[in-house]
């Protein structure tokens, strides 16, 4: 028997154990799902909250950072859902609304032909084994205690299925709304299954419903069929000081598929975004991009595991950070080329502008290559604004603050522009501009 | 007009400009010629307000006002313009956006209204045509992927739009073929006016066949060592800078 020294449980760990023990009977899913929950929670309990000695969590020590586990938000009542009608009136068409992690079909928009959406609870009850297998997401690289915790406590989520060959012209939105004045926790798990040859865009947005603190543990699983074309964006722009958002994004890319994903993180309290991208079939293309704009004491961690398990796939990972104040940015990217995944073309780049003297960037790109005929590279830069560029702009009449703002806008905007989609570029450019304006305002305030 | 009086400038431990004095009257085109390393760009940068240089003593007066205490953008608003020896690339900023931002920033500093879009477009079109800058180039990021000649023409286009009262051109001709030199010279000549002064820095006399200067100064070792008229440039064309060898460390 091996004796393992287990550090004493933190208050948050104890509260989570209690929440699971008390709540599991009420969580959706039949026997097989209950077993999955038990196993997942046991895995979480063994590992505990991730801490700095866990390599992939080295810079986001949740054991220290998560002082308490908030009570889990109860499923919203009918009246609560009804009260949202006004708030959601402005949502774009094809919006699938998750209220405190619970899918609200009655508040969600109509879907075009070839697209269906059901709740996680219904899917778990349906006993469709292939759905349950997809939802379990038992991937080699995704052995992570926060993901395990999500599997144990998933209350609901949305299951979207796109029929093979369906060309969906307008984007499908997954909208996260949060209820209630009481700070609470939410666990949701969603799945988007995209049939072979389908073409679709999935945009994840949050609905600002006033001041929001709380703890969110979301997982989104994207299964992309062969030769499908998929665009994806995620706006994590509604965080508040003290809020915690843990986002797991699992993407399986089929043969010859094309996948392009962008995320913007601003206003984070604590954000951990972990992406597990698996190239399953040959000759696919997958791009991940992200911009994090942080100030104050915000902390945003993006950690990637990109596995090339098939030949001839092209992976691009391109991330940028602007860190002001005392904020902390984390970028970890591990690109793994499995044995036999020849002709892999993988590139990863993380660039950071450090504006605050007290800001910190932790950047760790890694390559693990077990095939010989590959082109892989990674790079990371970190520094202040370029003095020659600032001077050049100033000689053209831009005051220093305007020159700085123009360069910052360009730095973040370059990745936004790569979205290529006019409406999205405009929307995300506006988010970046709003962040810069808020930053300028707080600067003048602190200078006064 | 521009007056530089007894300017001493150092970078780090090293003094680069030595008691340099120079005066350029309104409407005058003055040329500064000199070997590489003689301090020509340093002079241009100090006048424009680059921070890394330490002004030990001396004055720079623009239209009678000492500008050494002003920031670069304030100097620009007062009518100063520098065309860079190496124009800087600004990724992610569309050239057209930049032109509008710069023009309106200066107008704002001077308390003037922003230009209307049609008026702005009209001016851009006119300057672009004069300097052979295609509309397509204005959509690209400023100077990114531009050829050496395109960058120089873009700088002159900015000058044409910003209408400075005093312009310094730092080796705008270097790296250009003869046709590009002609286009640039045409741009400069079109802006010649009784109220506008120019300081043309060049290593090669040939530019001065196209932009005929009123005065020519030879700079070596961080000071003006000779001054004269256009004939001085012609003389340098024959003799080169050998004569000034003792004055400068690096002679080419
Ligand atoms: N930023 C700098 N740091 C150190 N030395 C410099 C810097 N800028 C200029 N110098 C030095 O000052 C001298 C003059 O340079 P510069 O003004 O560029 O000459 P020119 O333009 O006439 O070729 C050179 O010896 C150069 O090496
Ligand atoms: Mg020079």
Q: Can you summarize the main beta sheet of chain A?
A: 10 strands, mixed
Ligand kinds: adenosine-5'-diphosphate, magnesium ion
Tell me the strand order in the biggest sheet of chain A. Answer: 2-1-5-7-9-11-13-15-17-19
Note the quaternary state here.
heterodimer
Domains of chain B, number: 1
Q: Pick out the low-confidence regions of chain A.
A: none
- Mean pLDDT metric of chain B: 92
Instruction: Name the shape of chain A in a single word.
Output: globular
Write the layout of secondary structure elements.
The complex is a heterodimer of chains A (448) and B (252).
Chain A: H1 11-23, H2 31-47, H3 62-65, H4 78-83, E1 95-99, E2 102-103, E3 115-119, H5 120-126, H6 129-136, H7 145-153, E4 158-162, E5 172-177, E6 185-194, E7 199-206, E8 215-224, E9 229-236, E10 244-253, E11 258-266, E12 270-279, E13 285-294, E14 299-308, E15 314-323, E16 328-337, E17 345-354, E18 360-369, E19 375-383, H8 387-395, H9 400-417, H10 422-447
Parallel strand pairs in A: 1-5, 4-6, 5-7, 6-8, 7-9, 8-10, 9-11, 10-12, 11-13, 12-14, 13-15, 14-16, 15-17, 16-18, 17-19
Antiparallel strand pairs in A: 1-2, 3-4
Helix pairs in contact in A: 2-7, 8-9, 9-10
Chain B: E1 2-11, E2 14-24, E3 29-33, H1 40-48, E4 54-62, E5 65-66, H2 72-77, E6 80-83, E7 90-94, H3 95-109, H4 117-130, H5 135-139, E8 141-142, H6 148-162, E9 166-170, H7 178-191, E10 197-202, H8 207-210, E11 215-220, E12 223-228, H9 230-239
Parallel strand pairs in B: 3-10, 3-11, 6-9, 9-10
Antiparallel strand pairs in B: 1-2, 1-4, 4-5, 7-8, 11-12
Helix pairs in contact in B: 4-6, 6-7
Bound molecules: adenosine-5'-diphosphate (ADP) and magnesium ion.
């Amino acid at each position: 028997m091996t004796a393992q020294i287990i550090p004493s449980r933190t208050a948050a760990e104890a509260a989570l154990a209690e929440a699971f023990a008390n709540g599991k009977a009420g969580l959706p899913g039949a026997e097989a799902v209950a077993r999955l929950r038990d196993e997942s929670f046991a895995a979480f309990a063994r590992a505990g909250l991730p801490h700095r000695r866990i390599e992939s969590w080295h810079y986001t020590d949740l054991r220290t950072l998560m002082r308490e586990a908030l009570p889990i938000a109860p499923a919203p009542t009918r009246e609560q859902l009804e009260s949202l009608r006004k708030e959601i009136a402005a949502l774009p068409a094809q919006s699938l609304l998750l209220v405190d992690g619970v899918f609200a079909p009655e508040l969600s928009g109509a879907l075009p032909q070839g697209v269906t959406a059901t709740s996680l609870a219904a899917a778990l009850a349906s006993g469709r084994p292939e759905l349950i297998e997809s939802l379990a997401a038992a991937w080699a690289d995704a052995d992570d205690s926060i993901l395990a915790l999500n599997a144990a406590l998933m209350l609901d989520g949305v299951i979207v299925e796109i029929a093979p060959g369906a060309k969906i012209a307008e984007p499908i939105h997954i909208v996260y709304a949060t209820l209630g004045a009481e700070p609470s926790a939410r666990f949701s798990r969603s799945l988007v299954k995209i049939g072979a040859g389908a073409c679709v865009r999935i945009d994840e947005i949050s609905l600002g419903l006033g001041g929001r603190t709380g703890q969110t543990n979301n997982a989104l699983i994207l299964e992309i069929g062969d030769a499908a074309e998929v665009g994806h964006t995620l706006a994590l722009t509604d965080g508040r000081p003290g809020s915690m958002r843990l986002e797991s994004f699992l993407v399986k890319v089929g043969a010859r598929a094309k996948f392009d994903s962008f995320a913007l993180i601003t206003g984070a309290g604590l954000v951990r975004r972990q992406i597990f991208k698996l190239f399953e079939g040959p000759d696919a293309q997958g791009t991940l991009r992200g911009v994090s704009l942080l100030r104050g004491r915000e902390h945003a961690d993006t950690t990637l595991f990109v596995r090339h398990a098939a030949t001839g796939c092209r992976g691009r990972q391109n991330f940028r950070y602007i860190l002001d104040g005392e904020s902390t940015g984390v970028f970890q990217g591990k690109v793994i080329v499995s044995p036999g995944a020849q002709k892999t073309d993988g590139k990863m780049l993380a660039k950071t502008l450090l504006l605050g003297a007290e800001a910190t960037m932790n950047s760790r790109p890694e390559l693990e290559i077990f095939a010989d005929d590959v082109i892989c590279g990674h790079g990371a830069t970190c520094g202040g604004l370029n003095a020659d560029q600032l001077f050049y702009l100033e000689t053209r009449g831009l005051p220093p603050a305007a020159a700085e703002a123009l360069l910052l806008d360009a730095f973040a905007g370059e990745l936004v522009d790569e979205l290529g989609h006019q409406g999205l570029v405009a929307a995300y450019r506006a988010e970046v501009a709003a962040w810069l304006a808020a930053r300028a305002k707080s600067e003048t305030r602190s200078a006064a | 007009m521009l007056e530089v009086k007894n300017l001493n400038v150092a970078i780090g431990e090293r003094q680069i400009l030595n008691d340099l004095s120079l005066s350029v009257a309104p409407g005058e085109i003055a040329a500064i010629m000199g070997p590489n390393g003689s301090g020509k760009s340093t002079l241009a940068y100090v006048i424009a307000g680059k921070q890394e240089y330490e002004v030990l003593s001396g004055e720079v007066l623009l239209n009678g006002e000492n500008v050494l205490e002003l920031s670069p953008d304030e100097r620009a608003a007062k009518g100063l313009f520098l065309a860079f020896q190496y124009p800087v690339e600004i990724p992610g900023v569309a050239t057209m956006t930049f032109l509008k931002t710069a023009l309106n920033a200066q107008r704002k500093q001077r308390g003037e209204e922003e230009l209307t879009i049609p008026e702005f477009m009209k001016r851009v079109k006119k300057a672009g045509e004069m300097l052979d800058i295609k509309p397509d180039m204005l959509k690209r990021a400023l100077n990114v992927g531009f050829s050496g000649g395109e960058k120089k023409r873009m700088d002159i286009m900015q000058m044409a739009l910003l209408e400075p009262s005093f312009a310094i051109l730092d080796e705008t001709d270097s790296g250009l073929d003869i046709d590009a030199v002609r286009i640039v010279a045409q741009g400069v000549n079109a802006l010649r006016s009784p109220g506008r002064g120019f300081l043309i820095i060049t290593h090669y006399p040939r530019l001065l066949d196209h932009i005929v200067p009123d005065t020519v100064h030879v700079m070596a070792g961080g000071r003006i060592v000779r001054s004269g008229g256009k004939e001085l440039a012609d003389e340098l064309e024959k003799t080169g800078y050998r004569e000034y060898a003792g004055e400068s460390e690096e002679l080419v």
